[in-house]
Amino acid sequence: MSVEITNESGHRLDESEFAALARHVLDAMHVHPQAELEIRFADTEVMSELHVRWMDEDGPTDVLSFPMDELRPGVEGEPSAEGMLGSIVVCPDVAQEQARTAGHSAEEEMLLLATHGILHLLGFDHVEPEEEKEMFGLQRQLLLTFLAGR
């Protein structure tokens, strides 16, 4: 599994922690071991530009997902197809604000956002209430099992 981490945010991050999280999530979702993923950390200016360009919304957002080969989760013994899963972009500045509101660390918030972004790459969404329940439940389970194994 190839996980590329790019930090252009100006924040100090434990890149190996995010690579380990990505591998945990992709393994749990039975994604092909040769799949590729990029996690990029960007400042508020870059994130604002991406948010306007791709979502037509002003200001920075916390995380954006850019799927490539539209890979979907596999099942036990039958991993997904091989390919480029895509890229997620996380904004540490927005994550810090959300972390303060939620009462946990900025790193935990960014791990949550990375998990959320990866699930979007795998085709999960939260537009409908049932979808939200499924995605957020899975997101919580994946993050908790990752944190418990640290």
TrEMBL record:
One of its GO terms (biological process) is rRNA processing. Binds 1 zinc ion. Its cofactor is Zn(2+). Zn(2+) binds at H116, H120, H126. It holds the Pfam family YbeY. It comes from the Bacteria. PROSITE patterns: UPF0054. It is an enzyme of class 3 (hydrolase). Its EC number is 3.1.-.-. GO terms for molecular function: metalloendopeptidase activity; RNA endonuclease activity; zinc ion binding. The keyword Lipoprotein does not apply. Its main location: cytoplasm. Keywords: Cytoplasm, Endonuclease, Hydrolase, Metal-binding, Nuclease, Ribosome biogenesis, rRNA processing, Zinc. Single strand-specific metallo-endoribonuclease involved in late-stage 70S ribosome quality control and in maturation of the 3' terminus of the 16S rRNA. Belongs to the endoribonuclease YbeY family. This is Endoribonuclease YbeY.
